[in-house]
Design goal:
This protein has helices at about 5-10, 25-40, 60-75, 130-140, 160-170, 180-190, 200-205, 210, 245-255, 275-290, 320-325, 335-340, 355-360, 430-435; strands at about 20, 45, 80, 85-90, 95-100, 110, 115-120, 125, 190-195, 195, 220, 235-240, 260, 270-275, 300-305, 305-315, 365-370, 375-380. By secondary structure, the chain is of the alpha+beta class.
Length: about 450
């Protein structure tokens, strides 16, 4: 860093990556700051600067004392120890020390009293909730949500016919021929913790996972308006069951609420979905397998007139970015779940699902919302109309829109929502079987 860069940082003020200090005398307070930066994305503490960004300056004695203080705090007051670097810059008002702490590889970090610290804007705060601390251990690959035991879930909750079929297909031998009790087999497969099935086992093989893990379902909705402020839907469903069933029903829900395009086919053809099924499958599989199961929330799937949104709880793990995953980089957040999913879903675990989805349908946008702690994939629909200029509020009837004749005219209630659409032969209104599958 040079003086020009320093002055630029001072002019921008403090934020979650940059903190100003007039001076430092307390090793415990400094250790808490370094732990917070290490648990986050790293950052800099600029010493010798007032809160308003003006330079107060340090002298040579200050720098010598600070070097010893920083060394002691980093090695003795932070667990595990951190290795910050310092740089001294000479200004017209005295020396300024820049202390840099990188994002730690051995998260979570705590002070000598066992307190975990995280950044909160330009300040720091104690990590107090169980979920937040669990996520920090997860980021350090010390625990995984899919391996946690589900209280009350035992081998009696398994769909034994389904599990036996999977075992035979996966290992080429009958379950009964193993010469081990069922609990022993489950433990060897990393599906049992103590006396209870873990999260992966319940999601993959339980007869009714929604009873043990009611938050881990898919909430799906199709709308004739452009956002969720509308009071009307075309199709709505809570999709429950084993992970393989949830996957297939979610893909079917999206496909059934899309237009089918004739393309070069004859007039008697059924057409193909405007968004390729392969792309839908990749994005849905990614949401179910890589979501954060420490968050008690459902995957949400919304079909709007111009787009399909698939929103999964939890932002990208560790230091992954949207550009990383587009290039095929991955991080196994749910390792046990992923190891079995590639035998139950069209999922290979190569880290190439996003790039494959983009290869067959490039019109997909991704948002890694770290503040909202969610990941959203948006697939733009082919030939979709943008929101009309002057469109009424979503609370108003769709029939009042000049372009709504094809979507809402003649509908007396939501039960007739798809029946009046010329291309809705596969719409929700005609899918009694699919509706029962989601119950």
């Amino acid at each position: 860093m040079d003086i020009v860069e320093l002055l630029g940082m001072l002019g921008r003020g403090e934020d979650s990556r940059c903190q100003f200090k007039r001076n430092v005398h307390n090793a415990d307070s400094l250790a808490a700051d370094m732990a917070a930066f290490s648990n986050g994305e790293g950052g800099r503490i600029i010493i010798g600067v007032n809160d308003d960004g003006s330079i107060a300056g340090l002298d040579g004695d200050d720098v010598r004392r600070l070097n010893q203080l920083i060394s002691n705090a980093a090695s003795q007051c932070v667990q595990p120890p951190v290795n910050p670097t310092t740089q001294n810059l000479n200004t017209d008002h005295g020396l300024v020390m820049v202390l840099e702490v990188i994002s730690g590889l051995n998260k979570p970090y705590q002070d000598k009293n066992g307190v975990f610290w995280v950044k909160n804007g330009a300040d720091r705060r104690k990590a107090s909730s169980r979920e937040e601390i669990q996520r920090m251990f997860q980021m350090g690959n010390l625990i995984h949500a899919d391996e946690l035991p589900v209280q009350g879930a035992t081998a009696a909750d398994l769909d034994m016919g389904y599990f036996s079929f999977f075992f035979q297909k996966r290992f080429g031998a009958a379950l009964e021929s193993q010469g081990l009790p069922l609990q022993g087999i489950l433990r060897n497969m990393n599906l049992l913790k103590g006396d209870f099935l873990n999260v992966a086992a319940v999601l993959l093989f339980a007869e009714s996972p929604q009873y043990k893990l009611p938050a881990f379902i898919v909430k799906a909705g199709a709308f004739d308006d452009y956002d969720l402020s509308t009071e009307r839907y075309i199709d709505s469903r809570d999709i429950v069951g084993r992970l393989s069933d949830v996957f297939s029903q979610t893909v079917s829900f999206v496909a059934a609420n899309l237009r089918h395009v004739q393309g070069a086919q004859g007039v008697n053809s059924l057409g193909t979905p405007e968004i390729p099924l392969a792309a839908i499958e990749e994005i849905v599989a990614n949401a179910l397998i890589h979501r954060d199961y420490f968050i008690s929330s459902s995957v949400r799937v919304f079909v709007f007139p111009d787009r399909v949104e698939i929103i999964s709880p939890g932002h990208l793990p560790n230091n992954l970015t949207v550009e990383n995953i587009k290039s095929g980089n991955s991080n196994a957040r749910n390792a046990v779940l992923a190891s079995f999913a590639n035998h139950l879903l069209p999922y290979r675990g190569y880290g190439s699902g996003i790039s494959r989805a983009l290869a067959c349908y490039p019109d997909i946008d991704f948002v890694d919302d770290r503040d909202g702690n969610m990941f959203k994939a948006t697939m733009r629909r082919q030939g979709a109309h943008v929101r009309p200029v002057g469109q009424p509020d979503a609370g108003e009837s769709a029939a009042g829109r000049p372009d709504a004749k094809e979507s809402a005219a003649g509908r007396s209630d939501a039960g007739e929502s798809a029946a009046g659409q010329p291309d809705a032969g596969e719409s929700a209104a005609g899918r009694s079987d699919a509706g029962r599958e989601g119950l």
